[in-house]
């Protein structure tokens, strides 16, 4: 016989309260930092079963708005490069804010303790496996295209495979360079990485930030600076050569296509996971 319990105001309110939705493939947000009014980074817990190669991306997101007719919600997912290295206990992401963007208009408001959807199936072309052995690696980025290189700059294999690591980052405004600049500066005092990779590993890095709109120490698009020879002179290196140089590209579509053609003109050939060559492009990223 079932005991009948009296219904008071508290239990009635509890019964009427909306149930918290359980997100599929949910991970908890552990850190959020807003770098500018257009850019932010965040970290989430890492699924115990997730294995990935530094430079790969996963699909992350939130639930979309309820359907006006059915009230049902569907996951709203986008491809995001993992900015943390493959050995990290958490996953870091670097994102743009689009005020009317279906996902980022919501994602930019996440706080520590919130949950995001993370589909644990990493893929991508910006991995060491897609390149032939070389002496120097170039990372070419615009905007939040810096994210996969944030991973690769903290990956031991990068420094095992190459004598020199050149990272170029082109943004419109100086503040948009802060995430990358802060990360590179932090490598110098990162005790774990200096122990893991080797004391002073960061001395192999040559960082070349440029802006296209706001005044900064170096103005101009990296492609223009390469064509004029200014970039090579500033860095103290020879132009790209397929015998020694390897490259990865992650930026907006126009940048990717322009730089891809430039690398081909230097004699470099595009590689893939199944066919390693001289350079690779992240096709899933659009800044």
SSE layout:
Blueprint: H1 9-16, E1 26-34, E2 39-45, E3 57-63, E4 75-81, E5 90-96, H2 104-107, E6 115-123, E7 136-142, H3 147-152, H4 156-161, E8 164-171, H5 178-187, H6 191-197, E9 205-211, H7 222-228, H8 230-235, E10 245-250, H9 253-265, E11 279-281
Parallel strand pairs: 7-8, 7-10, 8-9, 10-11
Antiparallel strand pairs: 1-2, 1-6, 2-5, 3-4, 3-6
GO molecular function: ferredoxin-NADP+ reductase activity
EC number: 1.18.1.2
Cofactor: FAD
What gyration radius follows from the Cα positions, in whole Å?
22 Å
Assembly form of the protein? single chain
Total helical elements: 9
CATH arch. level architecture of the largest domain: 3-Layer(aba) Sandwich
The biggest sheet amounts to: 6 strands, antiparallel
CATH class assignment of the largest domain:
Alpha Beta
What structural class do you assign from the helix and strand content? alpha/beta
Q: So, the CATH homologous superfamily of the largest domain?
A: Nucleotide-binding domain of ferredoxin-NADP reductase (FNR) module
Termini Cα gap: 64 Å
**Whole-number tally of structural domains:** 2
Output mean pLDDT: 91
Instruction: Give the topology string: H per helix, E per strand.
Output: HEEEEEHEEHHEHHEHHEHE
Overall geometric form: globular
Low-confidence stretches: 1-7, 9-20
Helix content: 10-25%
CATH topology of the largest domain: Rossmann fold
Q: What strand line-up does the widest sheet have?
A: 4-3-6-1-2-5
Total count of strands: 11
How much of the sequence lies in strands comes to 25-35%
